[in-house]
């Protein structure tokens, strides 16, 4: 057991989080996988690298690949207007000034309502305001341009070609799977199985093995699914003051180390993924508890400190790593 996995085990016990799946990529092909704990607090089935977790907002960078595939093939352009003067670029980078909305999830038999009902302007266009609303609009755009359901398009054009064959944007709506993690609330109670109508923003179900494929594709310039220049564009800030690229948070650390990252939080789940392209390193973490953020914080903080020695408090605050 290496340093990071021991830190993960200790944090898991301290937080009361039932289970975690994590992977550290030392290079694109040098991968260490670790799984600890249980699918469900009241059960005895163990988390595996094939266990499905809700990715939560890790859905957004994956969705961004789907959008950029349409850009690369010339079916849409980043400056195309999508909604009330807002462009594809605005929506990918959370600079459209839309009001923050959240998808708390619904039971499969409940109706999702009108996806556009919560899309409202609230801030000046061009400023960074994180929201699910822009990705809901991108979900509808993908369906309109491709002529397919969002989930089908994403599986056929992005997930399957990347080798993410066990991942899905529709799972939980009409399918039951045995090897799936149950979410747990801050009270330690199991969260009901919920479906997220805002699929592009929060609806991905994925596994550790599949997110390793995604991390590798981000490190190797697209894995043939996107061209390297498209991936590079996504990994850079849309403007210098904006801490976001096209689907990813961007954070510059000491020694000109650029961290490309995203976190996720659905009810009962906390997730994280990050890449340091300059050093060909990546980290993936999936947990099945609202308390999973403390596990993620301990591991991410130590992962970064092993690379750059001293992580500034300002970076820790941005990454939600402070106690």
From TrEMBL:
<dbReference type="InterPro" id="IPR012338">
    <property type="entry name" value="Beta-lactam/transpept-like"/>
</dbReference>
<feature type="domain" description="Beta-lactamase-related">
    <location>
        <begin position="11"/>
        <end position="294"/>
    </location>
</feature>
<dbReference type="Pfam" id="PF00144">
    <property type="entry name" value="Beta-lactamase"/>
</dbReference>
<keyword id="KW-0378">Hydrolase</keyword>
<dbReference type="GO" id="GO:0016787">
    <property type="term" value="F:hydrolase activity"/>
</dbReference>
<protein>
    <submittedName>
        <fullName>Serine hydrolase</fullName>
    </submittedName>
</protein>
<dbReference type="InterPro" id="IPR001466">
    <property type="entry name" value="Beta-lactam-related"/>
</dbReference>
<dbReference type="InterPro" id="IPR050491">
    <property type="entry name" value="AmpC-like"/>
</dbReference>
């Amino acid at each position: 057991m290496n340093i990071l996995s021991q830190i993960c085990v200790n944090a898991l016990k301290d937080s009361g989080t039932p289970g975690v799946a994590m992977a550290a990529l030392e290079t694109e092909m040098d991968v260490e996988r670790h799984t600890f704990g249980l699918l469900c607090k009241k059960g005895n089935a163990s988390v595996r690298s094939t266990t499905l977790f809700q990715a939560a907002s890790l859905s957004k960078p994956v969705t961004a690949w789907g959008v950029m595939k349409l850009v690369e093939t010339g079916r849409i352009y980043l400056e195309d207007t999508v909604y009330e003067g807002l462009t594809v670029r605005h929506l990918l980078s959370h600079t459209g000034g839309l009001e923050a909305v959240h998808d708390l999830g619904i039971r499969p038999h409940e109706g999702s309502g009108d996806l556009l009902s919560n899309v409202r302007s609230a801030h000046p266009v061009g400023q960074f305001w994180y929201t699910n609303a822009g990705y809901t609009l991108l979900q509808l755009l993908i369906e309109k341009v491709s002529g397919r359901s969002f989930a089908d398009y994403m599986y056929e054009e992005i997930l399957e070609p990347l080798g993410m064959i066990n991942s899905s944007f529709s799972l939980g709506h009409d399918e039951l799977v045995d090897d799936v993690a149950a979410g747990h609330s801050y009270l330690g109670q199991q969260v009901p199985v919920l479906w997220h109508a805002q699929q592009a923003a929060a609806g991905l179900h994925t596994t550790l093995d599949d997110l390793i494929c995604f991390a590798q594709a981000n490190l190797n310039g697209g894995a043939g699914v996107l061209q390297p220049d498209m991936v590079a564009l996504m990994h850079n800030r849309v403007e210098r003051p904006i801490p976001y690229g096209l689907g990813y948070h961007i954070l510059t650390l000491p020694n000109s180390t650029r961290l490309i990252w995203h976190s996720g939080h659905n009810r009962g789940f906390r997730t994280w993924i990050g890449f340091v392209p300059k050093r060909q390193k990546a980290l993936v973490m999936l947990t099945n508890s609202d308390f999973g953020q403390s596990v993620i914080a301990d591991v991410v903080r130590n992962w970064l400190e092993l690379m750059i020695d001293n992580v500034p408090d300002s970076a820790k605050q941005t990454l939600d790593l402070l106690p």
